[in-house]
Amino acid sequence: MDNLLQAIKETVNYLHTAGIVKAEAGVILGTGLGDFVKEIAIEKEIPYTDIPHFPISTVEFHSGKLIYGTVSGKKVLVLNGRFHYYEGYTMQQIAYPVRIMQALGIKNLFISNAAGAMNLQWKKGDLMLISDHINLLPANPLIGKNYNELGARFPDMSKTYCPYLRSLIKKIARENDLTLREGVYVAVQGPMLETPAEYRFLNKIGADAVGMSTVPEVIAAIHGGISVAAISVLTDECDPDNLKPINIPEIIEIAAKAEKKLSLIFKKAIELCGKDY
User: Fold this and answer.
1) In the list 113, 208, 228, 243, which could disulfide-bond 183, CB 3.0-4.6 Å?
2) Contact 199/79 with Cβ under 8 angstroms?
3) Poorest-pLDDT segment among 27-36, 58-67, 173-182, 217-226
């Protein structure tokens, strides 16, 4: 992808031809978190394999479809399946769908992921609203040539996770009697899980939860002037003194149980964002 702007133009032209013209909100669904799709009045559903310049998700729990439709009266573009550094993608490839969202006029982006809880006061199955992040991935999507058409060379990250969207989500959670934690997410490269010493280190540097995604997408969104909110489903408890072997089927099951809560929050947030609430 030598010419990013040309690639974006070709992808957007393809989506326009397919009937996807403009959307107000974007959603990125993480591992085992596809239940939100049931909330969409779907107009178009396109496999990533059909979209010019799109990467192809290789993780078995990610379906790899771009979904366009309406949620609560608003047009949305949903990535059902994301891309990870550990799959071998470049940061620019990981962030590419966010660039397409930017080109389609999306103003608010809602992101979900599955993460491990290092805050030992919390339990698996809890939701954590991300207040900030720590990027321990070895690169980011802004390295290399900057295209001024996409954003400034040095984007400010002082309010990365939109205070308005976070406040809105917290209010939705309170009004629906949903437990919602709030904390710092750290992104690591994976795909291996962390050692006990690594969990201690990550917790000591200020992280409450750890995962392998989200941060490149967020950086690209901020670069492109998109407001971001992100929620982690805490799928396992990372107690370094009582660490149990990872159980992937259990993680997927826990994520599935949390889906309904997450879907409700995202649906209400899409409905209410932009309004006084």
Assistant:
1) 208
2) no
3) 58-67
- Measured distance CA(175)–CA(266) in Å, rounded: 14
Each residue of 23-42: pLDDT tens digit? 999 999 987 667 889 899 99
64 Ramachandran zone, left/alpha/beta (phi>0; psi -120 to 50): left
Return the DSSP state at 72: T
What amino acid is encoded at 48 in this protein? Y
Three-state DSSP state, 3: coil
DSSP state of 161: S
Question: Three-state DSSP class for 218?
Answer: helix
Cα separation of 49 and 43, whole Å?
A: 18
Cβ–Cβ < 8 Å for 96, 104: no
Contact 168, 267 (CB under 8 A): no
Rounded to an integer, what distance in angstroms lies between the CA atom of residue 123 and that of residue 127? 9
Looking at residue 51, the DSSP 8-state letter turns out to be S
* Three-state secondary structure call for residue 114: strand
Start-to-end Cα distance in the chain = 42
Cα-based distances in Å from 123 to 47, 111, 117, 149 = 35, 21, 7, 43
CA distance 145 to 139: 14
Alpha helices, DSSP H only, in the chain? 4-17, 91-103, 163-175, 196-204, 215-223, 248-272
User: Do strands 41-47 and 74-80 pair parallel, antiparallel, or not at all (unpaired)?
Assistant: unpaired
Task: Read off the tokens for 51.
Answer: 């979209």
Cis omega (within 30 of 0) on the bond before 155? no
**What is the overall mean pLDDT for the chain?**
93
